[in-house]
């Protein structure tokens, strides 16, 4: 199933085809600072299934200190995805930019060792201190990556 997404200013549009991984709430310090929010809701998709439809010239890329790469609209600041260092064939898509509202609650919380101190996680989804290995497997050992 294809989904499309748009940034806040509307200049950049994308489409993603195929399977979208389970939604995960990331509480890392980069997501918190970059999104101005207590966490970001993301899901893994294959990079090869993501295409820019319009406005790619406005997309800027930022390499995080953790070795990941973030791509965002330079006009309005909307985040599209993060390229995790430990899974270069995948991207961690920011679900807030979908045109159709995402409805599924997170299946896991990751990087909770750096979550906002005031933020209380109120659901029953499992919590991981850091980022489990990718592709996301709730039974896997956590890696050292925080991005
Ligand atoms: Zn924009
Ligand atoms: Zn994060």
Task: Please provide a written account of the structure.
The longest helix is centred in the N-terminal third of the chain and has 7 residues, at 29-35. The chain is 5% helix and 31% strand. By secondary structure, it is mainly beta. The strands form 2 sheets. A 7-stranded mixed β-sheet has the order 6-7-8-9-4-3-10. Strand 7 and strand 8 (79-83) form a beta hairpin. The chain has a single domain (3-114), classed as Metal Binding Protein, Guanine Nucleotide Exchange Factor, Chain A (Beta Complex). It is built from 1 helix and 10 strands, in the order βββαβββββββ. The two termini are 27 Å apart. The structure holds zinc ion (2 copies). Residues 26, 28, 30-31, 40, 111 line the site of one zinc ion.
Key attributes of the depicted protein:
single chain; 147 residues; mainly beta; Metal Binding Protein, Guanine Nucleotide Exchange Factor, Chain A; seven-stranded mixed beta sheet; three-stranded antiparallel beta sheet; 1 helix; 5% helix; globular; binds zinc ion
Biggest sheet, open or closed, and with what strands and sense? 7 strands, mixed
Query: What separation lies between the terminal Cα atoms?
Result: 27 Å
Can you tell me the overall shape? globular
The total of helices stands at 1
Structurally, the number of domains stands at 1
What fraction of residues sit in β-strands? 25-35%
Task: Work out the radius of gyration.
Answer: 14 Å
Q: CATH class, please?
A: Mainly Beta
Written as H for each helix and E for each strand, in order along the chain, the element string is: EEEHEEEEEEE
The counted number of beta strands is 10
CATH fold group: Metal Binding Protein, Guanine Nucleotide Exchange Factor, Chain A
Mean pLDDT: 89
Query: Order of strands across the widest beta sheet?
Result: 6-7-8-9-4-3-10
Ions, cofactors, ligands: which are bound?
zinc ion
CATH architecture: Beta Complex
The unreliable regions are: 138-142
Helical content, roughly? under 10%
* Global structural class: mainly beta
